[in-house]
Automatic annotation (TrEMBL):
<keyword id="KW-0812">Transmembrane</keyword>
<protein>
    <submittedName>
        <fullName>DUF1622 domain-containing protein</fullName>
    </submittedName>
</protein>
<dbReference type="Pfam" id="PF07784">
    <property type="entry name" value="DUF1622"/>
</dbReference>
<feature type="transmembrane region" description="Helical">
    <location>
        <begin position="55"/>
        <end position="78"/>
    </location>
</feature>
<dbReference type="InterPro" id="IPR012427">
    <property type="entry name" value="DUF1622"/>
</dbReference>
<feature type="transmembrane region" description="Helical">
    <location>
        <begin position="84"/>
        <end position="102"/>
    </location>
</feature>
<keyword id="KW-0472">Membrane</keyword>
<feature type="transmembrane region" description="Helical">
    <location>
        <begin position="12"/>
        <end position="34"/>
    </location>
</feature>
<keyword id="KW-1133">Transmembrane helix</keyword>
Length: 120
């Protein structure tokens, strides 16, 4: 059974990883082209910079989610050892830290602060 699951999981992980990298790339290019177009229209440079950072941050966050998913699929279905689980834990920890810091950078508050503000 594993002889069928491992190749399918490996292929799935590669596809999802490609989607993650593609997402980051597309958002980065779109953000740059959008900022360049707005600069040519002589819009306020501070608002251009803020929107550029917002769009780029969202793209990176979304891409990181896909990359984490591909790492989990590959590790669990293809290479399940204590060493690969340890490496996966470290990678997920680093990417989760990056996600949190990007969220704080973009919104100016921790993700759980939004719920408290809405409930009040």
């Amino acid at each position: 059974m594993n002889e069928f699951i491992a190749p399918a999981a490996s292929w799935s992980a590669a596809v999802i990883e490609t989607i993650g990298v593609g997402t980051i790339t597309v958002f980065a290019l779109y953000s740059l082209f959008n900022a360049a177009a707005r600069m040519l229209r002589k819009e306020d440079s501070d608002s251009i910079f803020q929107e550029l950072r917002q769009l780029l941050g969202r793209g990176i966050l979304l891409g990181l989610e896909f990359l984490i998913a591909s790492d989990i699929i590959y590790t669990v279905a293809v290479e399940l050892t204590f060493e690969t689980i340890g490496v996966l834990a470290i990678v997920v920890l680093i990417r989760t830290f990056l996600s949190f810091t990007l969220e704080v950078e973009m919104s100016g508050k921790w993700p759980w602060q939004n719920n408290r503000l809405r409930d009040s």
